[in-house]
Design a protein that fits this description.
By secondary structure, this protein is mainly alpha-helical. The chain has 20 helices and four strands. Strands 1-2 form a two-stranded antiparallel sheet. Helix 3 packs antiparallel against helix 4 and helix 13 packs antiparallel against helix 18. The longest helix has about 30 residues.
């Protein structure tokens, strides 16, 4: 069974070579490769999760080189669960993107680039969850960075290049800090293997331990978009195509949260910086959700809710109890699916209504009732309405806070309630503006092109639609027959609004909703599994013994 551990990383990398080989010459085969490989990765992830639950952690030393020389990959309950949920979500998003690309039928759509970059991203995410040492974790981050920049800048439009540049600069800064932390760790202890570090770190002076811990937490906080290092996210994600934004919002921030969980339990037990983490969690919750309240663009609004709800997960890490970790794990897997779904729905709204600006939308509940349902269910889940999984995760975290009984814990419990109520207000605001009220005058009808082919906002002159910087300056609106596939496409240019949304995109969105609802239907087995994962995290011994062969 241990031999299966590297496959979630190796399969996407091998498929990337095949995808690049066939390129645009055999697009159907390229799509088949991507779907088949991600389906296989999902199946492998489920097998590894079940095996880790029944047998304990699984590990493999690549090349049969033992630590500290070799690369170690480890699958325990937490990494198995994260692999399974991330594989399911990436498969759904891939199907969504295929539906979008096939519907647009544009030869300029860079699907030949999209598929390899997407597969590399999946490999990087999988490698992060399985990494058993700091160097391999760093390499995983860099793999994700390269793929992320390609996906963020698909089409090469001005807004996407600027957003991609911001993302890369922030990521390179965190990479430099990460490298310094790795160098310090190796210089002090002669290893970067997690299991060996868990045994050797207590021998270091407390000041050195705290410095290494602070540097690693800073790196992972940037990846997770935790306040105050989250300002880059609302400006980077909304400009990307809907499927790219969805997988970034759903998965990449949770990679940072996972790394915080792993290092705080395995390398730095004792919760020395718990109060600091809870203060940061509270600031993320409140500042993020207040930022969402102030937004009128759906994508930016969702980006701020993402920052806010990362605070719930950091809350659990700051408490550092078994109950808190169990609740945080539930909330992580819940939020991966729900946040991904909401960004997919935002893409559908953009395709149906021609914009994600809420002041220019309305009447969608009557015009597109299925789309309204696809938004309503995950929106209520995000707000934590019982008995949905968002409520289960928040309840677990708040119960852990009450059980802890410290002043910070009670403050975080109160902050969680306020954040949940404001999240409900934000989702109700979106519902009222985009779905419930009557369509505002001038709302785009099916068959209308609202943006130019350049999709640029470099100038501030108002175009025919009266909105500065929309890329239509000096261009007359174009009207074409309804029923064709305005939204930002994979290649960054405009297509035509449509009254009938593409079935693959709708089906993929419905699948992510079904996945999130399954966490409610199977809440008992899920919470039992996360409790066992939390016990394994806190105990540390099973992980260390498996890796070191004790």
């Amino acid at each position: 069974m241990n031999a299966l551990v590297p496959l979630p990383v190796l399969l996407p990398l091998c498929a990337t070579g095949l995808s690049l080989t066939f390129g645009t010459r055999m697009q159907r085969f390229q799509r088949f490769i991507s779907v088949a490989v991600l389906t296989a990765v999902l199946a492998l992830s489920i097998i590894l999760m079940i095996a880790a639950d029944r047998q304990g952690p699984l590990s493999v030393h690549l090349g049969d080189f033992a630590p500290p020389l070799g690369i170690t990959l480890v699958a325990d309950r937490l990494s198995g669960l994260m692999l399974t949920v991330s594989s399911a979500v990436t498969l759904c998003v891939l199907i969504y993107s295929l539906g979008q690309g096939m519907t647009d039928r544009d030869k300029e759509t860079p699907l030949a680039v999209f598929h390899p970059a997407y597969l590399i991203l999946v490999a990087g995410v999988s490698c992060t969850f399985l990494a058993g040492d700091l160097v391999n974790l760093f390499v995983s981050f860099e793999i994700m960075l390269v793929a992320s920049f390609v996906l963020l800048t698909l089409g090469g439009t001005g807004p996407r290049m600027r957003a991609g540049s911001t993302y890369v600069i922030i990521s390179l800064f965190s990479s430099m800090v990460f490298l310094i932390a790795i160098a310090m760790t190796y210089a002090a202890l002669g290893t970067v293997n997690f299991a060996q570090l868990a045994e050797r770190l207590p021998g270091l002076p407390l000041g050195v331990q705290t410095l290494i811990q602070a540097m690693l937490i800073t790196v992972f906080a940037i990846k997770a978009a935790v306040f105050p290092v989250a300002a880059w996210l609302p400006d980077s994600y909304p400009t990307a195509p809907a499927p790219v934004t969805a997988v970034f919002a759903g998965l990449l921030t949770k990679v940072g949260v996972y790394c915080m969980m792993r290092t705080e339990t395995l390398l730095f037990p004792g919760n020395r910086i718990g109060d600091l983490l809870m203060a940061v969690a509270l600031a993320s919750m409140l500042i993020g959700i207040l930022g969402a309240v102030a937004q009128t663009d759906l994508k930016r609004l969702l980006s701020f809710t993402l920052i806010s709800h990362i605070g719930f997960m950091v809350f659990g890490i700051g408490l550092a109890t078994r109950e808190a970790y169990g609740g945080a794990i539930v909330y992580v897997v819940h939020h991966i699916t729900v946040q991904t779904t909401l960004f997919l729905v935002a893409g559908l709204i953009e395709r149906r209504g021609g914009t994600t600006e809420l002041t220019r939308l309305g009447g969608l509940a009557k015009a597109a009732p299925i789309l309204a349902l696809l938004f309503f269910v995950p929106a209520m889940n995000l707000a934590g309405i019982p008995p949905l999984s968002g409520f289960i995760g928040k309840l677990g975290l708040m119960r852990a806070g009450v059980a802890d009984g410290s002043a910070w814990a009670w403050i975080l419990v109160a902050g969680s309630v306020v954040t949940s109520l404001l999240t409900l207000y934000v989702t109700a605001k979106v519902w009222n503006l985009a779905f419930w009220r009557a369509a505002p005058p001038g709302q785009a009808e099916a068959g209308t092109v609202l943006e130019s082919g350049d999709d640029t906002d470099d100038d501030t002159d108002e175009g025919p639609d009266g909105v500065p910087g929309t890329g239509d300056e000096g261009i007359e609106p174009v009207h074409r027959p309804a029923g064709q596939a305005v939204a930002a496409t994979l290649h960054g240019r405009a297509v035509i609004t449509t009254s009938r949304l593409p079935r693959p995109m709708m089906a993929a969105t419905a699948a992510t909703i079904a996945l999130a609802l399954s966490f409610t239907v199977f809440a008992g087995p899920l919470t039992a599994f996360t409790d066992r994962s939390a016990v394994e995290l806190v105990e540390r011994t099973p992980y260390i013994e498996e890796v070191l062969g004790k």
